[in-house]
Write a structure and sequence with these properties.
The protein is of the alpha+beta class and 328 residues long. The chain is 23% helix and 30% strand. The chain has a six-stranded mixed β-sheet, sandwiched between helices. It has a five-stranded antiparallel β-sheet with strand order 13-17-14-15-16, with no helix packed on it. It has a four-stranded antiparallel β-sheet with strand order 2-1-4-5, covered by helices on one side. The protein binds adenosine-5'-triphosphate. Adenosine-5'-triphosphate (ATP) binds next to helix 1. InterPro entries: AAA+_ATPase, ABC_SmlMolc_Importer, ABC_transporter-like_ATP-bd, ABC_transporter-like_CS, P-loop_NTPase.
């Protein structure tokens, strides 16, 4: 189990980078770390690995305290691996040699099989004998992933592992990689900007905002019951609707997702004006003006800009969608 207790960290005296971060991760769980650029995702991963010394708090991996460079000359525990956004590869050797470098030399036949399996997982079998210097950025990132796995970690920390990988390859790679990690019972924390990584491949999602942890639940729970607009906005265009407009007396604001706004509604409707529309392949995102609010809804057909249209809200359990402002 990974246990993080009230971690605080600052690169400089003037500004704190992370404050009061506590959470735990059970063995074999996959945790996405998500939040806007600069909120501290990479810094947190480096602290978890032991590349940085926390100013406050403690980190334990399976009851062993993770120590930073002030106490540990060579950072990192044996069964913990960190894959950063800079890959440490040998350019003049082949893809398979780069991976095998991290396997024990005692069992060459076994290593061949492991290497084959890993290259298959990252979809690089066809390039096994190609020198790394001839690879694209995305291919290098996949070699680095295979290398990290070759080290047989029990805890794998990935900093934006798919950032160089195109959409075509990414979908299959994500499925294969996370299935491999589950099969091998490898605990994984991965920083990402892609909501699809978080939705489909994390058991829990850790949401960060300005160096703080503002939520830590399953993606389903975050979606169904977002506590803040920041969290709701991770998923898609999000509407914040005052309770009175939803048919109640509440002065609170509630999250309503675009698919929960019905257009051309026949009962209890409100009038909105179409301001713009955006093609999304299988549907349109319709931008509406509702009283003084900007509201987004989906529709399966285009609607003329300027048209007035009747809408209503169709939210199950809307009391769960009450929003609490994040403290500044
Ligand atoms: N070596 C450093 N020295 C000083 N400040 C740093 C250093 N590295 C990062 N920072 C600052 O710490 C904050 C957090 O950076 P970090 O890279 O952890 O964010 P992030 O969430 O991973 O961002 P991104 O999503 O853009 O990768 C930022 O304000 C950044 O400018």
């Amino acid at each position: 189990m990974l246990q993080v207790n009230q971690i605080g960290f600052a690169y400089t005296q003037e500004k704190s980078t992370l404050s009061n971060i506590s959470f735990q991760v059970e063995q074999g769980q996959h945790v996405a770390i998500i939040g806007e650029s600069g909120c501290g995702k990479s810094t947190l991963l480096h602290l978890l690995f032991g590349n940085l010394d926390a100013n406050e708090g403690e980190i334990y991996w399976n009851n062993t305290k993770v120590l930073g460079p002030a106490f540990n000359l060579i950072p990192g525990l044996d069964d913990v691996k960190l894959l950063t956004q800079e890959f440490d590869l040998m350019p003049f050797t082949s893809v398979e040699e780069n991976v095998k470098k991290h396997l024990s030399r005692m069992y060459p036949e076994k290593n061949d099989a492991i290497c084959k399996d890993l290259l298959n997982t990252v979809d690089l079998s066809a390039l096994a004998t190609t020198k790394v210097k001839f690879l694209s950025g995305g291919q290098k990132q996949r070699v680095a992933l295979a290398q990290a796995l070759a080290k047989k970690p029990k805890l794998l920390l990935l900093d934006e592992p798919f950032s160089h990988i195109d959409q075509y390859k990414k979908n299959k790679l994500r499925r294969d990689l996370f299935a491999y990690l589950k099969k091998e019972k490898i605990t994984c924390l991965f920083a990402t900007h892609d909501v699809k990584d978080m939705l489909s491949f994390s058991d829990q999602t850790l949401v960060m905002y300005k160096g703080r942890l503002i939520d830590y639940r399953s993606p389903e729970a975050l979606y169904e019951q977002p506590k803040s607009l920041k969290v709701a906005s991770l998923f898609e265009e999000t509407n914040l609707i005052p309770g009175q407009l939803m048919g109640g007396n509440s002065t609170e604001n509630y999250v309503v997702y675009p698919h929960e706004i019905k257009l051309n509604a026949s009962n209890k409707n409100l009038e909105a004006k179409v301001k713009n529309l955006y093609f999304l392949a299988d549907r349109y995102l319709i931008e509406l003006e509702l009283q003084n609010l900007r509201v987004f809804a989906y529709h399966n057909k285009p609607i003329s800009v300027g048209k007035k249209i009747a809408i209503n809200f169709s939210v199950e359990n809307w009391e769960k969608r009450k929003i609490t402002p994040i403290q500044k």
